[in-house]
Amino acid sequence: MPTEYRLEGDGTNIQALPKISLHDHLDGGLRPQTLLELADEIGHEVPASDAEGLDRWFAEQSNSGSLVEYLKTFDLTTAVMQTREGLTRVAREFVQDLAADGVIYGEIRWAPEQHLTRGLSLDETVEAVQSGLEQGVDDVRAQGRGIRVGQLVTAMRHADRGLEIAELAVRHRDRGVVGFDIAGAEAGFLPSRHRTAFDYLASQYLPVTVHAGEADGLESIRSALFDGRALRLGHGVRIAEDLIIDRQDDENTYVSLGPVAQWVRDREIALETSPSSNLQTGAIAAWGDELIDHPFDLLYQLGFRVTVNTDNRLQSGTTLTRELALLSDAFGYDLEDFETFQLNAAAAAFLPLDDREELAEQIQNGFDDA
To answer: Which residues belong to the active site?
Structure first.
């Protein structure tokens, strides 16, 4: 049976609360049983013979404390997502699982260039995923609920296809794509490598989020902001490296902001934090190795636009509901805090203003009814 998470104090069912998911990878959200079945169809070897064993394997591989090691688990997930049928099924189930988690709007990011080994073109991969997403939305609607989703087309930062993938995203902007991202090994691969792609996206008015401040520090964040024109930072937790602790007493910590942190906070550039993933990959190693050490709360108290995300539900064995529960346990957050996180995400969604305001209203109504 799935774990039921309730808010300590008032007993609110966290899963039932309306949520927004901004940072969730398609190839990090497969159901283990689906992975087994798709692997069997294409004759791909897997490290376990049943879903429970595969789940354990992912957990063991993902808790290395290294982003590079963590990313190796995606060799298996992407291997079974090389056909139209595989992509469509994974995308359809992804939406079903988001809705079951209480998500009312989700942006699903993935890298089409990693799904070409069995003959699909870039455009065909995007079309296959979109078909699955739409089927998932229909499935949710048939159950009497509603969900809206969009694709974040992602380029791999270590490759040289940034402009090509940016052009792909723009071609499909009226057919499901809502924005662009770069992902992959961060250290040594600054966003500036893809400046031409970002220039093109800016000329086409397509919004951008950039993985930055996870496995690299302020230089990466600075490049995401000024080379990538990022409106959001994927993870972004290492922006805390630009906070200067002036003094502390028994009740308060007094902090000054460096120029990059000041810019991010003042411009309300959203941080797409993923607490469990940040622990697994060592993104917060400078502050500690437990959730209580995560700079999330400090950033929240300082007024940064923090959002809560899963990153990879399979690798982290998590849901958005669980991530909120873990944060509540660590920092004592209540229903009002949870609502703030969702309203932050609604404001940062890559949607027109009217749609963002509608999302905010849905969030407020859902929390009022909780």
So the answer is: 214
